[in-house]
Write a structure and sequence with these properties.
It comes from Coffea canephora. InterPro entries: At_inactive_RLKs, Kinase-like_dom_sf, Leu-rich_rpt, LRR_dom_sf, Prot_kinase_dom, Protein_kinase_ATP_BS. One of its GO terms (molecular function) is ATP binding. With 618 residues, the protein is α/β, with parallel strands linked by helices. Helix content is 30%, strand content 14%. The strands form 4 sheets. Strands 1-2-3-5-7-9-11 form a 7-stranded mixed beta sheet, with no helix packed on it. α12 packs across α14. The chain is elongated. 38% of the residues are buried. The C terminus is likely disordered. Bound molecules: adenosine-5'-triphosphate.
Length: 618
């Protein structure tokens, strides 16, 4: 180890076990020896020259955990301090130990909140903080997609239990804390013993039923994130839809009263329409049927445009209004409802929020998008636009999204391409989302994106919000890009844009940025496809775990990714940058210490194969 690491480790031990507290000189842990060569007590370097494990269990440590010093040791994967008397907080700086896979702090006197930064340790597989005095809410550890165990019993933690991915957890225990609210859906994976001793916790698998929530009025934007309960979402979905329906039906009744029967559905027939604005005319020219739900005076501001689609041939707005609707989810840019029409067609209706776009521009935009067809882009079935409301209608895709595929509801597939460990590999083997399928998703999405970009470049319409939940799997399990063009460049958050600029050549201004943002986002999807891990916090995950390591890559290694489809079928700009990211990610992700310069391509493949990293592909 370097002198800097040695110094930092000595500092760490001085803080957690002060020299005057009776520590044994034979332990090493001094500046004159190397932690690996001299085998410092509790240090394991596993045949390499860098510290991988520090295990200091049951040795009466009586100080504080100095994470700033500890995490100078970048290679640290396992930290175990079980059954000591370590006190104070778990510091935010623990997130500097970015390769940490196992964190065992059970049986100490830790106090205070768990640091939010814990959720950035996305290599973590096992966390044990049981039998301490931690308090406050849990950070959102559901972001750590490879987590196998979370043990936090016998603390003073409070708030609601976040929605972990319980299907992936092998061990989970939060008993004897102060958690409140409903137990998240554990899908039968864990019994009551994991939750006992939290007096304000309710719902399955505990025997205390939760109070039934009263029907909730339409939530205001400020309230929207406060509920995590599925039931609440469903109720509020019904409430919102009921309000929309009442509003729209009210408008229709008003229109009928005022103008008599002649206006009621006359506009349904295109030929019978009165003259309208140029944009309305354009829409009719494009073989669409359009009908209004407002009085003629406001018709322009509130019409459902049904685009030509055999699936909903003859669908009328009333059909949409009458059909039962279910709230599927709330995204950053709106709410999605599943609407079942009575002719067994199921639609997805996206209600977009806070999009300040004029009615005409919205229509033109939808029209342009609709003109470009690609088998891997989900077509818009219909749209609706008024001052207050924008709705987009798509065919509902029963097979869910790529996000879901990768994040593992077993109903579909496992999220593991490259198994994190043998146990998980075997567990999920039967329903693997195989490498070939992933390449198909990557190539089809790239081709579709390339075409959309090419055709819509002059109009400045990029996707704007490309991510794995917007890649839907159609009935043949082929990917379809959904919600193309629903976000404009000015809506991008600053951090995201800065991140994009830092990795792309910075020749672009204004609307070009959003095309680059798509390419960046596509890279994120590739990473997720390759690793099976979510890249949720784009800025930090990518910066910390991926992009930094590109700098250390030997160009020869790039050829490793020859298992990708031929470059011509991928979007050309992706080939170099993302292949580099791919390879570096493999190394980062699996904590591999190999000298990239010294190892040849063939050897590398064998090495990765032996490490069970490429066993899907080689
Ligand atoms: N046409 C569709 N068929 C089936 N599921 C869909 C369809 N469109 C979206 N979904 C799914 O519904 C859920 C909610 O979608 P929504 O677009 O509202 O959220 P999001 O994609 O997470 O966020 P954002 O608002 O940023 O796009 C997501 O899981 C998404 O994959």
């Amino acid at each position: 180890e370097t002198v800097e690491v040695r110094q930092a480790l000595v500092q760490f031990l001085d803080n957690i076990y002060p020299a005057n507290a009776g520590r044994d000189a034979s332990w090493g842990w001094n500046l004159s020896s190397d932690p690996c060569d001299a085998r410092w007590k509790g240090v394991d370097c596993r045949g390499t020259s860098s510290v991988r494990k520090i295990v200091l269990d049951e040795i009466n440590l009586t100080g504080i955990l100095d994470a700033s010093s500890l995490c100078v040791t970048r290679s640290l994967a396992v930290l175990s301090l079980n059954d000591n008397n370590v006190f104070g907080n778990l510091p935010e700086e623990i997130s500097n130990c970015s390769r940490l896979t196992h964190l065992y702090l059970s049986g100490n006197n830790f106090t205070g909140n768990l640091p939010k930064s814990l959720s950035r340790l996305n290599n973590l597989k096992r966390i044990d903080i049981s039998n301490n005095r931690f308090s406050g809410a849990l950070p959102d550890l559901s972001r750590i997609s490879g987590l196998l165990s979370f043990l936090a019993e016998n603390n003073q933690l409070s708030g609601e239990i976040p929605d972990f991915d319980f299907s992936n957890l092998a061990k989970f225990n939060v008993s004897y804390n102060n958690f409140s609210g409903p137990v998240p859906n554990v899908d039968g994976h864990f019994g009551p013993s994991s939750f006992l001793g939290n007096p304000e916790l309710c719902g399955q698998p505990l025997s205390i039923a939760c109070p039934t929530p009263p029907p909730v009025p339409a939530p205001t934007p400020a309230k929207k994130k406060h509920s995590s309960s599925k039931q609440y979402l469903i109720y509020s979905g019904y409430a919102i839809l009921a309000l929309i329906i009442i509003f729209l039906v009210g408008c229709k009744v008003f229109k009928r009263k005022k103008h008599g029967a002649k206006n009621s559905m006359a506009a349904e027939n295109e030929s019978s329409k009165p003259s309208s604005t140029s944009s309305d005319s354009k829409i009719r020219e494009g073989s669409r049927s359009e009908f209004s739900i407002m009085s003629p005076a406001t018709r322009k501001s509130s019409s459902l445009v049904v685009l030509s689609s055999p699936m909903v041939n003859g669908m009328q707005f009333e059909d949409l209004l009458r059909a039962p609707a279910e709230l599927v989810g709330r995204g950053k840019h709106g709410t999605l409802y599943k609407v079942a029409l009575n002719n067994s067609v199921t639609l997805a209706v996206k209600r977009i929020k806070d999009w300040e776009i004029s009615r005409d521009n919205f229509k033109k935009r939808m029209q342009k998008i609709n003109e470009v067809k690609h088998a891997n882009v989900l077509p818009i079935v219909a749209y609706y636009c008024s001052e207050q409301e924008k709705l987009l209608v798509y065919e509902f895709q029963q097979n869910g999204s790529l996000f879901r595929l990768l994040n593992g509801k077993p109903k579909y597939f496992s999220w593991h391409l490259i198994p994190h460990s043998l146990e998980l590999h075997n567990f999920y083997k039967s329903e693997m989302f195989d490498w070939g399928s992933r390449l198909n998703v990557a190539a089809s999405t790239a081709n579709a994106l390339a075409l959309m970009h090419q055709e819509l470049h002059n109009d400045g319409i990029a996707h704007g919000n490309l991510k794995s939940s917007n890649i839907l799997m159609n009935k043949d399990m082929d990917p379809c890009i959904s919600e193309y063009g629903l976000k404009m460049v000015e809506n991008h958050d600053e951090q995201f844009t800065t991140q994009i600029e830092s990795i792309m050549d910075s020749d672009s201004q204004g609307s070009k940025k959003i095309f680059k943002a798509d390419i960046y986002s596509f890279g994120v999807i590739l990473l997720e496809l390759l690793t099976g891990k979510l890249v949720q916090n784009r800025a930090s995950d990518l910066a910390n775990n991926v992009l930094n390591s590109i700098l250390h890559l030997s160009p020869a290694i790039i050829s490793l990714v020859s298992f990708l489809p031929p470059p011509k079928c991928l979007y050309p700009k992706l080939t170099t940058t993302y292949q580099r990211i791919f390879v570096s990610w493999i190394f980062q992700f699996h904590n591999l210490d190999v000298s990239l310069q010294e190892i040849g391509f063939d050897q590398l493949l064998i090495f990765l194969h032996n490490q069970r990293i490429l066993d899907q592909t080689t």
